[in-house]
Amino acid sequence: MAAPSGAVSCEDFAEFQELLRVMRTIDDRIVHELNTTIPTASFVGKVDAGQTCKELYQSLMDAHTSRERIIKNCIAQTSSVVKTLREEREKAQDDVALLKQLRKEQTKLKLMQSELNVEEVVNDRSWKVLD
């Protein structure tokens, strides 16, 4: 599955997670993909299994690369927001709303960083099945 066209919004964490869930469909269905793309003995002459595996491998590589790029991009964007809010917080330490916003963004950043770990587990599982 290719990366979505256009810019990815990192503002809403739920939207970010939903995008990753949709993009991980290929990983979730890897066993099914293998079963439907690798020919059985009766169809071995009609389908090029090597080419089919190559295409599946490439689409998996593309999906992993695009998801990692999206996650790292959102982490960078959110880190920038956190940095800006920290600087504003130093200037206005009595601003409770600013503190709440900073905490919210810090939490979102931690959740996005944890998605990198999830991504690693998903990728490892897919490659084990493909090997």
What does it look like?
With 131 residues, the chain is mainly alpha-helical. It has one domain (13-38, 47-128). The protein contains 5 helices and no strands. It has helices spanning 13-23, 25-28, 30-37, 49-91, 96-130. α4 packs antiparallel against α5. It is rod-shaped and about 75 Å long. 14% of the residues are buried. The mean pLDDT is 86.
Q: What is the β-strand count?
A: 0
The largest pleated sheet is described as: none
Helix content: over 70%
Q: Give the domain tally.
A: 1
What characteristic shape results from the CA principal axes?
A: rod-shaped
SSE succession: HHHHH
Q: Given the structure, what is the number of helices?
A: 5
What value does the average pLDDT take?
86
Q: What fraction of the residues are assigned to beta strands by DSSP? A: under 5%
Structure at a glance:
It is built from five helices and no strands. The protein is mostly helical and 131 residues long. The mean pLDDT is 86.
SSE layout:
Blueprint lengths: L12 H11 L1 H4 L1 H8 L11 H43 L4 H35 L1
Helix pairs in contact: 4-5
Pfam families: MIX23
Organism: Ardeotis kori
InterPro entries: MIX23
Labels describing this entry:
rod-shaped; 131 residues; 0% strand
